[in-house]
Amino acid sequence: MSISAVVALRGFAACICLAAVPSLAGTASEAELGKQLYLTGRRADGTMASAKAEGDVPLAGPRIACAACHRPSGFGSSEGGVFTPPITGPILFNERQLDRARFMMNRFGQAQSKLFRARVSQPRMRPAYAPETLARALREGVDAGGQKLDAAMPRYDLSDADVANLAAYLRSLSATPAPGVTTEEIHLATVVGPHAPDSRRAAMLATLQAYVDWTNKNVVGEESRQGFSPYHRNDLVGGRRRWSLHVWELQGPPESWPAQLEAYYGRQPVFALVSGLAEGPWRPIAQFCDSHRLPALFPITDQPALDDAGAGYTFYFSKGRRLEAEGFAAFLAAKSPPLRAVLQIQGDGAEAAGAAADFKRALGAKAPTVQLLEAGLAQGAAAAASGTPDAIVIWPGETSDDALAGLIKELPAIVKVMLPSDRTAFATQRLAKDQAARILLADPYELANAVHPLAFRVRAWMRSRGLAIDEPRLQFQSYYAATLLDAALSRLLRDFYSDYLIEAVESEAEGDLNPGVYPSLALGPGQRFGSKGMFVVRVDDAAPDGVAAASDWITP
């Protein structure tokens, strides 16, 4: 990151702190205009706000939107040695009291300089902000107690109306905790869709319940030792809650799921969804979560809601079939000498149609000179014979294994056939050796011969709790979702707000929580897909899982 970018980021953070200062309630229209200024940096007249940071560095555009540093929740951030404090309504418009636990958590667990840690730990008491002190902070860089703000805090050119609008919005920002949390419990849920295999359902629920039981035992133990040393750990105990896990079983077609979810939520609101298993599109569940601002952590699905995921409340392991379509396109585009033609065969169902559309778009962008031939399942063999493609990509969708095996037998024996990851067992177990030898598969997971130290610890954890590891990938995915939720909740302290949990998940995903199902799992602000790549693999009887890498890790 350039020096100017860092300065801009600091300025942004500072601006937000000041912006949070006003104390008048304001009208609904003022609050909406303040929200616009907070989230985008755009003033009521439609122009972008302007400011200077570090004394003379001009700032303009979206870099100075308050939410970029104070985040949508208003609870702040820490990056590059710059601490951006919380500026929510309840914090800004009340006298600042000494809160040792908050000072500790504000370090965000990052490696920071001694100067940074010393500055964050300073009490810096102040009275509640008022309209005039907010305006002074924004324009002159002096807080409500008369102390000079950090030079990273921008000095803004804002009108009285802009300050009033911002104050109106900040007063409501993270002012009401999310439902699903009591003084003793955090209510959580996991969703199980119809047609989920009994063995996979049982494995997921057993893993989640074991984690809940383990967490609750730890909470009870901490509650029984109030007043223990060191003091800063004791201060954090007040934020811990016991977990209560609810299982939301869905029945019928996807269009009926929203009503069922509403009924479950109406009987007992929950603070978050953890893991989950559905055979079919996750979109109805994701839309429900978005409508209730309900965080959902890493459901096990190949059909995530993709188009609006960036602003949504659901985190996914990957983009599912879209990732595989884009990965295949990148793999084929990198071939040397360049391919002449690729045949895409589309099977039955919406999933196959979506993957085919994604592959067509991605191949056109990455290899515009490659001719794309397209056919349905019934016409696939004829199209392959007449079009003489260099490679064949099949999206079976709802097509049966019998029909797929029949098609592959009719395709030219010299052409590689590419299949999605859900047909790995089909390729390794169903096909004859001569047919399996020309199959390439998408593999969005870690290879079996890779070593992740945490995987050994997770297996030991499961065995010590009597869990049979019958579905290791699924169980490790469920464990990761629960672990990341646990880490994110510890960051919230006592501030149980949905947007704050979202931000905590984004940050904690960078930690050492990956048990090895994927080569890496990481998130950034606004990102909703933890794993960004895939391998292309070939069938290999000598390999641990029956497949071996045919490519490096591809991040399309």
Please write out the topology.
Blueprint: H1 3-19, H2 28-40, E1 50-53, E2 57-60, H3 67-70, E3 77-79, E4 82-84, H4 89-92, H5 100-105, H6 114-121, H7 131-140, E5 155-156, H8 160-172, E6 185-192, H9 198-223, H10 231-236, E7 242-249, H11 257-267, E8 272-274, H12 283-291, E9 296-297, E10 314-315, H13 321-333, E11 341-348, H14 350-366, E12 371-376, H15 380-387, E13 391-397, H16 401-410, E14 416-419, H17 424-430, H18 433-436, E15 439-443, H19 453-464, H20 472-492, H21 498-508, E16 535-539, E17 547-549
Parallel strand pairs: 6-7, 6-8, 8-9, 9-10, 11-12, 11-13, 13-14, 14-15
Antiparallel strand pairs: 1-2, 1-5, 3-4, 15-16, 16-17
Helix pairs in contact: 1-7, 2-8, 7-8, 9-20, 11-12, 13-14, 20-21
Classified by CATH, the class of the largest domain is Alpha Beta
CATH fourth-tier homologous superfamily of the largest domain: Response regulator
**Total separate domains:** 3
Content of β-strand = 5-15%
Give the fraction of residues assigned to helices: 40-55%
Name the structural class.
alpha/beta
Q: Can you walk me through this structure?
A:
By secondary structure, this protein is α/β, with parallel strands linked by helices. It has helices spanning 3-19, 28-40, 67-70, 89-92, 100-105, 114-121, 131-140, 160-172, 198-223, 231-236, 257-267, 283-291, 321-333, 350-366, 380-387, 401-410, 424-430, 433-436, 453-464, 472-492, 498-508, and strands at 50-53, 57-60, 77-79, 82-84, 155-156, 185-192, 242-249, 272-274, 296-297, 314-315, 341-348, 371-376, 391-397, 416-419, 439-443, 535-539, 547-549. The protein has 3 domains: 3-172, no CATH class; 185-318 and 468-515, Response regulator (Rossmann fold, 3-Layer(aba) Sandwich); 322-443 and 536-549, Response regulator (Rossmann fold, 3-Layer(aba) Sandwich). Helix 2 packs across helix 8 and helix 20 (472-492) crosses helix 21 (498-508). Residues 1-26 and 103-108 have low confidence and may be disordered.
